[in-house]
Specification:
Number of helices: 2
Oligomer: single chain
CATH architecture of the largest domain: Sandwich
CATH superfamily of the largest domain: Galactose-binding domain-like
CATH topology of the largest domain: Jelly Rolls
Shape: flat
Structural class: mainly beta
Length: 813
């Protein structure tokens, strides 16, 4: 067996050597040791003026160097990344995890530094590694795999002058095209613009369709550089997230191959480029990455690093389905119920690579349920919760006090969680996942209900007297308590307490049945599972004196506006009384109680609804009996039959009474002379020549309350035909006597106009209403001078005849 082991080890050793990557190829030292670096500008010949050789200690070389400055600058142009951050433009991580493969290191090649002098002044920088490919059979793959991400500032230049990132592989025979690539923004010509003091510039814009197809995204973060070019938006930085690339160096076994990564600003110099590079420290055959084990019926992604200009073939286990990416290096699959082997082939004409990955399958995640629900008292408490019936492990526990906002509790890989010292009701759930390929699911929750502590509060009143027969203000209640009353207790001395049986759980305790003498009372209060608390006790002394006894009628009454309510009280036990409200109250009895029983009546006539409390006392008893008369006053009815008016004999006059109440009213007109009806709201009056003047009264009654009010309208009858009468003078001096100049219409149903002109023919007043408000002697807010003014008017009579008149009026001041 010993010799057999040695033989196997000897055979295995060359294979291991043939697949071994060179030292620090992946920057695992945290520096650039074994790498060559250079910085410079396009305007120099050659452009790379500052060389940092491998094998020479920093700062002259790269050994031990974790940063290298841009050319002639203190800004870092090359940085070794050992800690993850997020790129400020693309927001991707600076050290990637790609489909399950976790890179540990990367470099940043380039920066946002630019030069604006033009003339090919753009910054350039590169890193380079000489790989001595181990000798061996060319059929044994020697794979170099790198991942890159880019941040390029669009310079509105032709594609070849744009910021760019190169990956170049050379052998002793020259550049290896199958392994080399150039990455930049595709542009298209859009026109010529007058720029920078009359200089004509050709403008190229990013071909966004092609750029997005290549994986570029326009960053929302503005460029930090201002080139003062009117055609450029500050939102011009494009990014491309991490992409993996591989190539096979097996045909170069025993030879030296050089890997070069270069990031160049635009050729004129005013737009930046930088890239991230991460390298796998695994130079054996190609590896398929993706979840293994996978998850039954759960979509997953598997990938190969891309091969330049490669074509890809995938074979998945029986029952599996490729849902996207069939001919690419990245596929999405939906597994069946059984695992198997995934096979991938990549071919670009230079090399053909095959890889396999054995994938087992786990059942889908079952989140299970957290139990039990619990109840605790706030403060010092503890509740152990357990996740049961789950398939998968706990990713973390979460908690919420409102059902919307959830707090991460951690506690991964643990099916139990102990909630301690809670002060509010909280729901707990667990996030469960059965392997990385299965979906994370959330369990059913358990609720720990938290009760506030029981607070007994105070018994109100804390000390009181009651009298024999007292049925008012004979209750104890609580103030400042928190919780439910589970019983009341009594004591003869305030020390030894007795509980009522059966328990009294009402919010008040009635003292009516207490025996004569002193007793103490308190309530027992409890909240949920919290310990009970007792209220501060109350001292109650029952006296032998009799509590007042009386009754009132009516306790509630409604009166019409301006009417009087009779308030009657019968005192059966009592020696005095007092009113709490004497407004609009008349009491002929003058607060006297000459005998018992005694009945008296007071009278109230308030204009608004009012209450009249009455307090009755009985000698010896300190407590008064109180009761209240409530007098509701109906709002007044406010009828209006219209202004006094003029008509001609035989002219129909439409009467109409309105009120502040719109419905439920009855009407009675008087006298009935000439009326078409006396019990309707709007009768028509026709008066003959035998009547000179008549006043109609109408009583309006509220059908619900019976309240009523009366109003009237005076009608003057002219014996002439329809006409318009106009005064010959008026005195607008604000004494309310003849202040307004207006026409008086008789038998006129429509006044077409009433106009007044001054001596210059200027219109100073005009009205068309049937009841004109009239002229007050002003024009545009100014008083007009005394003098003669011309008026003209026109109207239509009730018979349809048009009447037009004109004349003069004297304005007297």
């Amino acid at each position: 067996m010993k010799w057999s082991f040695l033989t196997g080890f000897v055979l295995l050793l060359p294979a291991l050597v043939q697949a071994q990557c060179p030292p620090n190829i992946n920057f695992s030292n945290g520096d650039l040791t074994n790498w060559k670096a250079a910085t410079g500008k396009f305007s120099y010949s050659p452009p790379f003026q500052q060389i940092y050789p491998a094998g020479i200690a920093a700062p002259a070389g790269t050994s031990g160097a974790s940063t290298i400055n841009e050319f002639n600058s203190s800004v870092n142009g090359v940085v070794v990344n050992t800690n993850k951050q997020n790129d400020p433009f693309g927001f991707f991580e600076t050290i990637p995890v790609i489909n399950g493969y976790n890179y540990q290191y990367s470099i940043t090649l380039g920066s946002t530094l630019v030069s604006n002098s033009g003339g090919g002044d753009g910054l350039v920088r590169y890193v380079e590694y000489n790989i001595d490919v181990p000798p061996g059979l060319p059929t044994n793959p020697y794979i170099f795999t790198y991942a890159y991400a880019m941040v390029l500032e669009n310079g509105s230049h032709t594609t070849t002058s744009q910021p760019v990132f190169h990956a170049t592989v050379t052998s002793p025979n020259g550049k290896i095209d199958c392994a080399s690539a150039t990455y930049n923004l595709p542009t298209t010509f859009t026109g010529i613009v007058n720029n920078n003091g009359g200089k004509l510039d050709s403008i190229y814009e990013v071909d966004q369709t092609i750029a997005k197809q290549q994986g570029f995204t326009l960053s929302p973060v503005p460029s930090p550089n201002n080139n003062n070019r009117p055609n450029e938006s500050q939102i011009r930085v494009w990014t491309k997230g991490w992409t993996e690339v591989m190539f096979n160096l097996a045909q170069y076994r025993g030879q030296r191959v050089t890997i070069n990564f270069e990031a160049d600003n635009c050729l004129p110099g005013g737009h930046f480029a930088y890239a991230y590079i991460a390298i796998r420290n695994d130079c054996g055959g190609p590896k398929i990455t993706g979840p293994s084990p996978g998850c039954v019926n759960t979509s997953a992604t598997y990938s190969l690093p891309s091969l330049a200009n490669g074509t890809y073939t995938w074979i998945v286990p029986p029952g599996w389905q490729i849902t996207s990416g069939t001919n690419t290096n990245i596929i999405t699959v939906k597994p069946g119920n059984n695992g198997g082997i995934i096979t991938a082939s990549a071919n670009n004409g230079c090399t053909k690579l095959d890889a396999q990955l054995s994938v087992s399958l786990l059942p889908p995640t079952v989140a299970g349920s957290v139990s039990p629900d619990a109840m605790v008292c706030t403060g010092n408490n503890s509740s152990k919760l357990t996740l049961q019936n789950n398939v998968g492990t706990v990713v973390k526990w979460i908690a919420s006090s409102d059902g919307f906002n959830w707090q991460d509790l951690g506690n991964a890989n643990n099916n139990t969680y102990t909630a301690v010292n809670l002060t509010s009701t909280t729901q707990y759930k667990a996030l469960v996942q059965n392997g990385s390929a299965c979906k994370v699911d959330t369990s059913n929750g358990a609720v720990v209900k938290v009760f506030e502590k029981s607070v007994g509060g105070n018994t109100i009143p804390s000390a009181t007297f009651i009298c024999v027969g007292q049925n008012q203000n004979a209750d104890l209640s609580l103030s400042g308590s928190s919780g439910d009353i589970i019983n009341w207790q009594w004591s003869d001395n305030g020390s030894l307490w007795n509980s009522f049986n059966p328990a009294i759980t009402t919010p008040t305790y009635n003292l009516t049945n207490q025996a004569l003498g002193i007793k103490y009372y308190r309530a027992v209060v409890k909240v949920g599972v919290c310990p009970a608390d007792t209220s501060a006790p109350a001292k109650v002394e029952k006296l032998s004196d009799v509590f007042p006894k009386a009754f009132i009628r009516p306790a509630d009454t409604t009166i019409c506006y301006g009417a009087t309510a009779s308030l009657t009280t019968t005192i059966q036990a009592g020696t005095s009384y007092q009113w709490g409200n004497t407004n609009a109250l008349s009491d002929p009895n003058n607060n006297k109680v000459p005998t018992q029983p005694y009945t008296f009546t007071a009278f109230a006539n308030p204009l608004l609804s009012s209450s009249y409390p009455i307090s009755i006392k009985n000698n010896g008893c300190p407590n008064a009996l109180t009761d209240t008369f409530n007098v509701a006053v109906r709002p007044p009815i406010q009828p209006f039959a219209g202004r006094d008016t003029f008509i001609v004999a035989g002219q129909p006059l439409q009467l109409n009474v309105t009120a502040n109440i719109n419905s439920g009213l009855s009407y009675l007109w008087s006298p009935s002379t000439g009326l078409s009806g006396i019990t309707i709201q709007n009768p028509v009056a026709i008066l003959n020549t035998t009547i000179d003047q008549i006043t109609y009264k109408v009583r309006v009654t509220d059908d619900v309350s019976g309240c009523n009010e009366t109003t009237s309208i005076k009608v003057t009858v002219f014996k002439t035909g329809p006409d318009i009468f106009v005064p010959s003078a008026f005195t607008p001096n604000n004494d309310n006597i003849n202040d307004i100049f207006r026409p008086i219409t008789v038998g006129i149903t429509q006044l077409n106009y009433f106009r007044v002109y001054n001596r210059y023919g200027q219109l100073v007043y005009e009205s068309g209403a049937s009841e004109s408000p009239g002229w007050d002697g002003t024009f545009k807010g100014r008083e007009q001078p005394a003098g003669v003014y011309v008026w003209t008017t026109s109207g239509v009579s009730y018979t349809g005849l048009t009447i037009t008149k004109k004349g003069t009026v004297a304005l007297i001041r």
